[in-house]
Write a structure and sequence with these properties.
Elements (H helix, E strand, L loop, with lengths): L3 E12 L2 E13 L4 E5 L6 H8 L7 E6 L2 E2 L5 H11 E5 L10 H11 L4 H14 L15 H13 L5 E5 L7 H16 L4 E5 L2 H4 L4 E6 L2 E3 L9
Parallel strand pairs: 3-8, 3-9, 6-7, 7-8
Antiparallel strand pairs: 1-2, 1-4, 4-5, 9-10
Bound molecules: adenosine-5'-diphosphate and magnesium ion (MG).
Length: 230
């Protein structure tokens, strides 16, 4: 069964007094283990789409099935539960808490998931090791570079072992070298079986994924040839 199915998803925003259709009949299916990029220019609807997939917003019409279950009639609490149990998020801005160490930032989602303290620390340390930051676990965000902060954010996203990792312009705030380190981590996570959906406006970043879709004016256009990550 697909991990994700979007069926004719539309999203309207009121701009001025008129509703404007920002997503137009978007259809997308992802299987477990897929590594998908959606590429499109600024304003094409990428963040709107990712917010819907991430249960941060709801569509105007259409159906969204996560692991075969329709999310249509879920209330805010149920959607928050799905975000915490099933999804991991990486954003362009890292959103780390400045007064918490890397370790405590990464452990935070486990607190919300009621994991006991000792296990929280162990699992956060393991996730930081997976992104190559075992030497910097007790550093504060302002003692880390942008690329290192994004690696902490990735550790925080994977520490709950999500079914689907969502990334909105994950390299957008980074230089090329730090960006390619982030793509190395995504490649490794994908090889280990993580399902990843990443949006970007950069071709070189999109090329790191195994399947590529384009979004233009709110329309999602077909998959290109499956490159198997070359
Ligand atoms: N909350 C909102 N209210 C009204 N219009 C919005 C809102 N969010 C986004 N939009 C509009 O929807 C379109 C798509 O935005 P967005 O999904 O952020 O694009 P992208 O991430 O591809 O740059 C843009 O025209 C934007 O102005
Ligand atoms: Mg955006």
């Amino acid at each position: 069964m697909p991990i994700l199915q979007l069926k004719n998803i539309c999203k309207d925003y009121i701009q001025g007094k008129e509703p404007v259709r920002v997503l137009k009949n978007v259809n997308l299916t992802m299987e477990r283990g897929d590594y998908v990029a959606i590429m499109g220019p600024s304003g094409s609807g990428k963040t709107t789409l990712l917010n819907i997939i991430g249960c941060l917003d709801v569509p105007t019409s259409g159906e969204y099935l996560l692991d075969g279950k329709s999310l249509r009639d879920l209330d805010d609490d149920a959607l928050a539960e799905i975000r915490n149990r099933h999804l991991g998020f990486v954003f362009q801005s890292f959103y780390l808490l400045p007064k918490l160490t890397a370790l405590d930032n990464v452990a935070l989602p486990l607190l919300y998931a009621d994991v006991p303290l000792k296990q929280r620390r162990e699992r956060a340390a393991e996730a930081l090791k997976a992104v190559g930051l075992e030497e910097r676990m007790l550093f504060l965000p302002n003692q880390l570079s942008g690329g290192q902060c994004q690696r902490v954010a990735i550790a925080r996203a994977i520490v709950t072992k999500p079914d689907l990792l969502l990334a909105d312009e994950p390299t957008g705030a980074l230089d090329t070298r730090a960006g390619s380190q982030i793509m190395d981590i995504f490649r490794r996570l994908s090889q280990e079986g993580m399902t990843i959906l990443m949006i970007t406006h950069e071709q070189a970043i999109a090329d790191c994924a195994h399947k590529l879709y384009h979004i233009l004016d709110g329309e999602l256009h077909g998959e290109e040839a499956d490159t198997h990550g070359i």
